[in-house]
């Protein structure tokens, strides 16, 4: 399904070149910094888990302790692994000892630095081997059970109680869902720690915890066997704990994760320096774990007009693609986001929506594009809403989207009921089956509305990207180029958790992942910086 829009490949390459320059600039700045979340992730991958006597996650306890002693700029790995060797403790034992006040980092005479690095790298290799085994287990399920055809039918559960979520998730899988997304509790993206253990009380969703991940993954494995196809699990690693939750997802075999710094900056007011650093490391983890990331460009059209601002979605997709490549994430794991959000009263709006979706498919042919349903213009008229969702599903199958997030006809009235979800799945299955190969039967007029619209949006996206090259992404975000929302480089939440790296900074997971993922090019600036 390429070439129907007669897009100029040279113009597409201009856009990619501009996005590449933007991504290089961002990556160069990211390379110079670490964050408390990145260092907590290192500890979690070493095996640190649980909470102290006051319920504070031990990963936070250790990193905050190291930060208070000015030990974090070089990375937590060196002082922590060195102390493990001195005291003859496991990572968990040392974390608990620090939490109990029995050990203070920086007071010991540590072993030779090279010996510490060797030990740390061995620990990193062991942890990453476990993640690789999880990826292989997923592949075995897919090989034995198979899975649903794309577009994957994606539905949500959001009760707040993980055990009730399990009941609803299994029901949705039996009805035909391919991806179950456990919506995260409202506001969790803004807390600078990861809650611990199974949770039964959330707000508009269920807390993302490693225990909850494990419970839901086990449940979906059970229902996968029952229905005879692999059911994918999705959760959110955006927010202040982005790399930690990515690591927990890798350890518990999640399949899809929301992972987009730009979304966090614009819609959660998370500091851009903080979250772009966190995103780079988290995407390396997702890449190695075989996790499909979802990006949040669809949200731009909830605050900006979907007709006038369509090019900002495409520009952001180009940027997200280039940033993902720099973290070793292949195109097959890039669930770039867009949405069916134009005013349904717009004449020929369906043609414009079709143009946008077909354009995304042709420009990103190997990406499992994430397509969002109409929300902004849904009303209390459930009958019109069901028709809007049907048109959305028709575009999804005609343009071969990868992940189809189903709309619910009552979502502007109340939290959709279980039967609303059943109707949504039933409708999507009907349309996908009856129009499976419709797109292959259709070509577009070279001078028609659809083709002209796609060329216009691409041209405007190129212009926007080249403007961003001139001013830089940080200034572009500050001026409100995306989603009509303005954010500054020093504003937002989490800036205090960003540190400039020292010359001897050491992160064994980042180093090992670069090798295993074959990351080359701009990321090698890090090795040059460290001599």
From TrEMBL:
InterPro entries: Cbl-dep_enz_cat, Lys-AminoMut_A, Lys-AminoMut_asu_sf. Residues 5-511 form the D-Lysine 5,6-aminomutase alpha subunit domain. GO terms for molecular function: catalytic activity; cobalamin binding. This is Beta-lysine 5,6-aminomutase alpha subunit /D-lysine 5,6-aminomutase alpha subunit. Pfam families: Lys-AminoMut_A (PF09043). SUPFAM superfamilies: Cobalamin (vitamin B12)-dependent enzymes. It comes from Alicyclobacillus tolerans.
């Amino acid at each position: 399904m390429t070439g129907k829009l007669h897009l100029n490949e040279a113009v597409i390459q201009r856009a990619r070149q501009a996005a590449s320059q933007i991504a290089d600039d961002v990556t160069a700045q990211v390379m110079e910094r670490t964050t408390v979340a990145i260092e907590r992730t290192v500890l979690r991958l070493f095996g640190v888990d649980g909470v102290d006597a006051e319920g504070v996650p031990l990963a936070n306890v250790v990193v905050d302790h190291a930060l208070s002693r000015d030990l974090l700029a070089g990375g937590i790995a060196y002082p922590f692994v060195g102390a493990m060797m001195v005291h003859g403790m496991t990572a968990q034992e040392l974390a608990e000892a620090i939490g109990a006040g029995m050990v203070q980092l920086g007071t010991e005479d540590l072993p030779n630095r090279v010996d510490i690095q060797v030990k740390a790298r061995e620990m990193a290799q062991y942890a990453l081997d476990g993640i690789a085994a999880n990826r292989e287990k997923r592949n075995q399920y897919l090989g034995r059970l198979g899975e649903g055809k794309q577009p994957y039918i994606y539905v949500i559960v959001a009760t707040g109680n993980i055990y009730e979520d399990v009941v609803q998730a299994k029901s949705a899988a039996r009805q035909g869902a391919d991806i179950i997304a456990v919506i995260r509790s409202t506001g969790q993206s803004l807390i600078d720690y990861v809650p611990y253990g199974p949770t039964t009380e959330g707000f508009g969703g269920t807390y993302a915890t490693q225990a909850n991940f494990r419970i839901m993954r086990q449940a979906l494995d059970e229902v996968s066997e029952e229905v005879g196809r692999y059911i994918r699990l999705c959760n959110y690693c955006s927010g202040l704990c982005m790399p930690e939750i990515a690591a927990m997802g890798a350890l518990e075999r999640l399949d899809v994760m929301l992972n987009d710094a730009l979304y966090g900056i614009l819609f959660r007011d998370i500091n851009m320096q903080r979250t772009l650093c966190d995103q780079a490391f988290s995407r390396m983890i997702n890449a190695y774990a075989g996790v499909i990331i979802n990006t949040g460009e669809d949200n731009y059209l909830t605050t900006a007009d979907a007709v006038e601002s369509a090019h900002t979605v495409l520009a952001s997709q180009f940027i997200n693609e280039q940033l993902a490549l720099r973290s070793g994430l292949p195109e097959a794991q890039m669930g770039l986001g867009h949405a069916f959000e134009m005013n349904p009263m717009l004449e020929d709006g369906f043609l414009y929506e079709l143009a946008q979706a077909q354009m995304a498919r042709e420009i990103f042919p190997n990406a499992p594009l994430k397509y969002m349903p109409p929300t902004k213009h849904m009303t209390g008229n459930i009958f019109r809403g069901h028709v809007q969702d049907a048109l959305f599903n028709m575009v999804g199958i005609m343009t071969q989207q990868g992940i189809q997030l189903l709309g619910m006809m009552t979502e502007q009235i109340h939290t959709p009921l279980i039967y609303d979800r059943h109707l949504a799945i039933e409708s999507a299955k009907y349309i996908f089956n009856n129009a499976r190969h419709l797109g292959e039967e259709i070509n577009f007029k070279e001078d028609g509305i659809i083709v002209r619209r796609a060329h216009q949006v691409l041209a405007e996206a190129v212009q926007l990207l080249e403007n961003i090259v001139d001013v830089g992404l940080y200034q572009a975000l500050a001026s409100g180029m995306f989603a009509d929302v303005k954010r500054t480089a020093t504003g937002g939440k989490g800036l205090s958790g960003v540190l400039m790296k020292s010359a001897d900074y050491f992160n064994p997971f980042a180093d090992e992942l670069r090798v295993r993922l074959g990351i080359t090019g701009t990321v090698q600036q890090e090795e040059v910086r460290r001599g």
